[in-house]
Structure formats: structure tokens, C-alpha cells
Amino acid sequence: MAWDKPGGNRPQGPNNDDGPPDLDEMFKRLKTMFSGDGKSNSDQGGSSGSGGSDAGLGPLLGLGALVLVGFAIYDSVYVVDQAERGVVTRFGAYNRTATGGLNFKLPTPLESVTKINVDQNNTISVRDQTILTSDENVVVVDLTVQYNIKNAENYLFKVRNPDGSLREIAESALREVIGQNNMDFVIIDGREAIASGTETLIQETLDLYQTGIAVTSVNLESAQPPEAVQDAFSDAIRAREDKERRINEAEAYANEIIPVARGEATQILEEAKAYRTRVVRGAEGETSRFAQIYEQYSAAPEVTRERIYIESIESVLGNTNKVLMDAEGNAPLSYLPLDQLMRNRSERAVVSESTAPIPQSVLNSVPRVDSSVVNSTSTDDRSRSRSRGE
Prior knowledge:
By secondary structure, this protein is of the alpha+beta class. Helix content is 57%, strand content 16%. It has a 3-stranded antiparallel sheet. A 3-stranded antiparallel sheet has the order 6-7-8. The relative contact order is 0.05. The N terminus and C terminus are likely disordered.
């Protein structure tokens, strides 16, 4: 049967350029060329025709063998990228792992290669997981796990479905970690701790099952209470935030007041120390003065008593508004300008308090008293002092 479409008036023959060549004719010519005698099988005898047919199959078999050898060589060479690992199996069993570069293997029926990308980051998500906490509350958690393949042999042969196993392990680890903590810690303060603990537990379980997977990061994307209690939980969070704000304000006020109070306390202590030092020094000075007076008194008691008495009388009577005169019975009448004396005395008191010197005009305006009167007064004072001393 011809290989072209049957029917039609298209002329046959290789010399006809009006249409495509006949495929049967081309096949016969190719077969005759491989037979090597240049004659068709119809020109030979029956026995010779059978021998020529066998001789024609030899080149075909050689060509087929050559094609098979070329295909085997082509199939035995393969290239593995630097980010990949080539897992070679022989008759379906693991044989070796090829690294990056040009590699060789047996033809496909004997060995096959599976290329695994070990540098690619893969991601799985665990969504809407309702988990019970240690204080018997419920939280809804979303988790994302990023991983890559660290052992291509284990990834292909140790576990039937590594990605599905990773998802189940992540859910189990998340439930275990959250079940050991209360709701406030999971939702507010402990997200990083929850993610870290979950990552550690996931990796330990993956290594235990020899999945060949390495977890690179675990992200706790959200942790919220159920929708039915979301409003009440939001109110509780706002109350907690108000509490923290009040505490911070109180601490700020304390930090502002305490240093001022400490400064005032330090100032009071320093003033007290200064007052103590002043009083002690004054007492020591009075003691020293008294000791000196006592030495003088021990040397001349009469003179010292009289001097002390005169100084005391002078300090007492110097601030009074009285004028004392001592006159005997028939002494002449003395005129004393009391108003001017009193005025001058008050002026002297004011000047002495201000530690200013007394003007000479004021001193000149004071009238002089009779010397006999003064002498009699001094004599009488001395007699009274002696009587008191005795």
C-alpha cells in the first residue's frame, strides 16, 4: 500500500517534477542502495532473492545500532546546576547524588536522574487555626513557614509526601506551643517567643522523621480571639493600655518630683550642718573668752569684778531714757538740757546699731556735766560695787 494519499491522476515516478515523489518508490530505491548490487529483487532468482533480502537487512541493523548507541550516549550525559542536586536511581533504587556540573549515568532504562533545587525557598501557610490556650481561651492563628531542602535523598525517599508532612508537623507544633501559654501572652507580648518555639519544635520533628527539610523562618502573622468576643477583647486591651499610660505618667511625675525633693533635703541638711558649725564655733569662742576672763579674774579679782560691773552697767544704762545724778545735800543746782540729751542719745543708739561712726558735731553738742558730780557718781558706783562684791 502506498504511503501517499490514494487516488487521483497524479503521475508516478521519480523523474516527474509535477508532484511529490512516490514514497513507495523512494523506499524501494533506498532498500536497493543498501543491498549493494544495484539491481531489483525481481531480476534475481528465488534463492538469490532470499539471500539479497538478508544482505539488505544488515546495513539497516547497523544503522539502527548506531542510532541506539548515539541515543545512549546522549542520554548518559546530563548537567546539574549549582543550586541543584541530581539524585540517581538504578532500577528504581537510590544509587548516588550528583552535584553541580557535567555528570554521566547509564542509559534511561538502567538509571534515571531526578533534579532537586536545594537553594530555593519554599513557603507553606497554616491558616485559621483555632487553638486552646493554657487558660482555657481560644485564639485564631495564622502561621507561615519558609523552608528549603537540605538533603535531596531523604526528601525523595524517606517520606512519601514531605510538603504535606511539613504542614501537619507545623500545625501540631503550633498547637503544642500555644497550649503551654495563656491568651494574653500569645496575642500581645509573646508572638516572637511563640514563633521561635514553634520553629524549634518543627525542625526537631523534621529531623526525627528524616524528611531532608530545613526550616529557615516561622512567622506568626496573626493571633486574634474569635470574632464573637473580638469587641470585648478590644475593650480589655484598651483598658490595659490606659493602665500602662497611667503608670507611665505616674513614673514621669515621680521622676520630676523626687529629684526636687532630694535637692531640698540636701539643702536643709547643708544648712543644718552650717548652723551646727556656727553654734559650735560660737560656743567655743565664748568658752575661750570666759577662760581668758577667768585667768584675768584669778590674777586680780577686785579689779576684774569692778570692770565687769562697770561694763554691765554701761551696757544696761546706755539704752535707757533716764539720767542719774548723785549730788550731796547743798550742791549747787545744775542745769541739764534733758531734751537734747535724750535726742542725742537716741541718735547715738541708731548710729551704733548701723556701725557708723558718731559725727563730731553731735559729740560737741552734748553739754558737759560738772566733774564733781561725775566724780561723786563714780565714787558711789565703786562703793556699791565693793559692797556687792563683799
